[in-house]
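To: structure desk
From: M.T.
Subject: fold request, one chain
Message: Could you run this one when you get a chance? Sequence is below, nothing fancy, just the single chain.
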Amino acid sequence: MKEITLKIQHVATQLFFRSGIKQVSMDDLSKKLKISKKTLYHCFGNKNELVRQTVQQHFAYIETRLDEISHMHISAVGRMVKAASFAVEELSKVNPSMIQDLHKYHPEVHEELLVLRKKTIKELMIKNIIDGRQHGYYRLDFNYELISELFAQQIIYITENWAQNNAQEAAQGVFEYAIYHLRGISTNKGITELSTIQLS
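Reply: Done. C-alpha cells follow.
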C-alpha cells in the first residue's frame, strides 16, 4: 500500500504542477494511474488530504535539498547563491494556477505550508549568516535574526504574489533579491567572493 500511496503522490505532484490543483480531479488521477477510485480513496480520504500530503512530500524534498546545499564544502556566499538557484529551478516548474488554487480551495494546507516555508528559510539564513561571519564574508554590524526574518518574509511575498501571475518572473525576483541581500550583508571579502561566482 505504501508503494501505491507514493506513486499516487508522485503522479499527483506532476499533474498539479502542470495543470493546477482545481483542474485535476480524483477521477483524472484514478484514470491516469489505472487504479480504482476505491483504491485512491483508501489511500487518501479526500482530495484535500491528497493535496496536503502531496504538498508536504514535495516540501520535504525541498528541505532535503536545501540541507544538502547548506552542508556543501564551499563558502557561505556560494551556498547562498546555490540555494537561490535551486529556488529558481523549483519555482520555474510551478503553474501559477497551482498557487492560486492552493490559496483559494485549500487555505488550511496553504497556511501550513507558509509556516513551514518561513521557518525553513529563516533557519537557513541564520545558519548561513553565522557561518559567513565566522569566515569573514559577512558584516558584524546588523541583527542577523531580524535580517533573517525580513529575508524570509520578502521571499514569501515574492513567491506568493508574483508567482500567482508569472512563475518565471517570481523565480527571477527571488534570485535577484537573494543577490541584493548578499551584497547588503557582505564584507569586502564577501563581495569579492560573490564576484567570482557565476550568477545565472
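Reply (cont.): The chain has a mean pLDDT of 92. Let me know if you need anything else for the meeting.
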